Write the structure tokens for this entry.
Amino acid sequence: MNRPLTLASSVAGAVIVALDGTVLTVAQPTLRHDLRASVGQVQWTTTGYLVAVAALLVFAGRLGDRHGHHRLFAVGMLGFGAASAGIALAPDVRWVIGLRVVQGVFGALLQPATLGMLRVAFPPEELRGPIALRTAAIGVAAAAGPVVGGALATEFGWRSVFLLTVVPTLLFGLLALTVREEPRPAADGPLDVPGALLLGAALACLVHTLVTLPSLTWSAPVALLAGAAFVRHERRAAAPLLPADVVGSPAVGAALALLVTVSAALNGGVFACVYVLQDGLGLTPLHSALLSLPLAALLIAAAPVSAVLVRRTGARATVAGGTAVLATGLLVLSRAPGPAAFCAGFALVGAGFGTVMVAATHVVVRQAPVASAGVAGGLQQTAMNIGPVLGVASATVLMDTGAARSPLVVLAVAAVAVLPICRVLPGRSPHVPAGPPTGPAAGGSDTPHTGHGRETGPYARFLGNDEH
């Protein structure tokens, strides 16, 4: 298997998803004006995508385990690009919403495959570098996305934003079709379609519930019922959607919980800061975006550093330290009196988040057997989609109480509260020397995140939709 091509494809897929989310955020006002759409309709251009992605990520990962991650990646990339081109030609907002849902379906196919390909192509001891490169690349995409999207929307209109990813998706999709994959072992049993439907319904309704908070809709009880039915079904299924060798690992469960928490803290914190800076301190959107640039810069810088720390000290200490740094950054932001303090707080949040992203994703991908790499990737992507929606929803509810900075304190406390589960993460392997890493110097992980249908600032979608 061609490792350089696999790594390039994995990074490209994650970057494309991250760019798609960030450029859309800044183009939404222009889209609304041009298509004469309501605020609710524009919100569904984001919500529809998120619901489709959340419903299908784990099932798509299982398909990749059975039929080949490169194949699923190719289908996802080509479909994602075709949907983007269709949106650019959409005659009204209803077409945009429908095609965004279609785009979410193909996005769900390609996202788990980007991690599954890495797990199959690289030995476990060499995964740190590629995962770190993905995180750094996503940080760059998230930082550049608002600038690129704003420039395109201003000069050429909102439709040009959706044409941005058409060529790279076509290129990497076709390249993925040329990769010859190793023969895959025969499946142990039939594909767990009932389990996939139940899990998809539970996750889709959970996302819908979160984006409609503080109102409670029909989706809340449906999410609970579908989730309970899924757990019951999985316990009895002969070939469950979530294999025991993945969900039965305490380390994987802890890493996923930490990814949900830190991505919620990041996105919820940035969402709250947008309003503090603009409504509270009277800064312009451009000025507030410039103050948050240290977040992107430190996230990018933290990715390769985290790969070194995981090698030298183990995932347990690296994740705990990164989570503590992120929580400290949120507390600094909650008390920041002026620009210098805000820059310092954003820098700490970016450094902490980048560190946890690489280390926790490394645990999820490495701990999973190769045969279940797609499911592991789907679970990681699910965590990175649910976390941001949860964070922005929580911040919205707390801000409605009148305390603009209260979400920052609450999210910091939540990050500290999950620190005890770091104890089940693997420590440093005794046989690994504390020397420089043998893999690439930088690496990365995915993640797309959510805009809640509202302006959440330029960094509220840190991967990954990898990963929206």
Observations:
- Residues 3-35 form the longest helix (33 residues).
